[in-house]
Amino acid sequence: MADKPTKGLADVVAASTALSDIDGKAGRLFYRGYDIHDLAGRTTFEETAHLLQHGSLPSRDQLAAYGAELVRGRALGGLVASNIPEIAAKQEPMEALRTLVSLAGADDPDKDSNAADANLRKAARLTAQQPLLVALYHAARTGATIPDPDPELSIAANFLLQITGRTPSQREVEIFDTCLVLHADHTMNASTFAARVCAATLSDMHSAIVAAIGTLKGPLHGGANEQVMRTLEAIDPSGVAQTVRDKLAAGEKIMGFGHRVYKTEDPRATHLRKMSRELGEASGDDTYYRMSKEMEEVVFAEKGLYPNVDFYAATVYHYLGIPTDLFTPVFSVSRMSGWTAHVIEQHADNRLIRPDSEYIGERDQKWKPIDER
Ligand code: ACO
C-alpha cells in the first residue's frame, strides 16, 4: 500500500535542477547560482534567458549571436499566423496562447526532434515568439495595426511599443525588462512541474509548453496578477482595510498573497514594490500603489502573509499601460525562458515522472448487471 500523500506535494522534491534555487526562510532566489538581487536591474531579459537555456551569462559575442537567433526565431509559421484573428475573436488571452503555441509547434522545423541542439533552437524560437503572439492577439481583437518588431530593440521595448501603441520611455523599458527577469524561473512551480511531467514522457517541447501555459492560467498560480488588479479596481480607495477584513472573515483568499515556499518576503516582490511606487508617482496618480501598500499591511496584520510576485506586478503592469487581461500572458512571456530550459534539462537526464496515489475509494464491490443497478 502506498504511503500517505503530502497534500499538494508540499516539500516533496520532484526533480533535480541546476536552473534555480529558493531559500524560502531567508527569502532568497538564485538563477544558476546568481542572486536575483544581483541580476534584477543589471542583467537584461535576453541575458537571463541565455543564462537559463545555455547555462551561462553570455559574453558580448554570445549575446549578439543569441539576439540574432531570437530575431530570426520571431518569424511565425503560416498556420499560427493565419489563425490569430479567429482565435482572438473566440478565446480569452491565456486560452488563445495555449492554442497558438500548439499551432506554432506544427510549423517548427525541429518539431520531430528532442535532441539537445534542436531543443535549444526551439527554446529560442518559443522565447522570441511568445511576446509577438501576445501582441498579435491583442492587435487582432482590438483591430489595431502594430509595427513589426524592431530588430534593434529588446524584447521588452518591442513588447511595450506593440501593446501600448506608443514609444515607451527608457525607464519604462528598464522596469519592464526587470519584470521579465524577475519572472523567468522559479524552481518546481506548478507550471514548470507540468512542463517537466509532459517532457518526461519524451513528448516534445511545444507539448510541454502547452501544458505549462494551461497550468499558469489558473488564479492560484499566474492568474493571480490579473485578479489583484481586478480587486484593486473593485475597491473604494477609502475602504481597503475593511474590504480585506471582510474578505478574510468570509474565508476568501486575497490574491497576490501567500506562497508555498517563501516564509518571508518574496525577493521579487521587493523589486516590484519599488517599481510600482516609482511608476505610480511618475504617473501623477499613485492611488493603486497606495491601496496596495495598505492592503499589504492589513493582510500581514490579519494573517501574517507576505505579498508574492503577482501582487505588485499587477500595478507595475497597469502603470506601464498593459491591459489587465494580458497580465498573465506577460508572465508567460518571461517564464517561457525558464519552462524551455527545464524541458531541455529534463530531456538531458530523463526518467518518466509517475508518482503513486493513495486509494481512498470503495473496495470489494459486487458487480451487478445493468438492469439490477
Ligand atoms: N489569503 C488568505 N489566506 C491565505 C492566502 C491568501 N492569499 N494564502 C494562504 N492563506 C491561508 C489559507 O487559507 C490557509 O489557512 P488555514 O490553514 O487557516 O486553512 C493557509 O494560509 C495555508 O494556505 P494554503 O492555500 O494551504 O497554502 P498553499 O501553500 O497550498 O497555497 C498559494 C499557496 C496557492 C499561493 C496560496 O497562498 C494562495 O492561494 N494565494 C492566493 C493566490 C496567489 O496569489 N497565487 C499566486 C502565487 S505566486 C505564483 O504562483 C506565481
UniProtKB/TrEMBL annotation:
It catalyses: oxaloacetate + acetyl-CoA + H2O = citrate + CoA + H(+). It holds the Pfam family Citrate_synt. Keywords: Transferase, Tricarboxylic acid cycle. It comes from the Bacteria. It comes from Microtetraspora malaysiensis. This is Citrate synthase. The keyword Transferase applies. Pathway: Carbohydrate metabolism; tricarboxylic acid cycle. Belongs to the citrate synthase family. InterPro entries: 2-MeCitrate/Citrate_synth_II (IPR011278), Citrate_synth-like_lrg_a-sub (IPR016142), Citrate_synth-like_sm_a-sub (IPR016143), Citrate_synthase (IPR002020), Citrate_synthase_AS (IPR019810), Citrate_synthase_bac-typ (IPR024176), Citrate_synthase_sf (IPR036969). Transmembrane segments: none annotated.
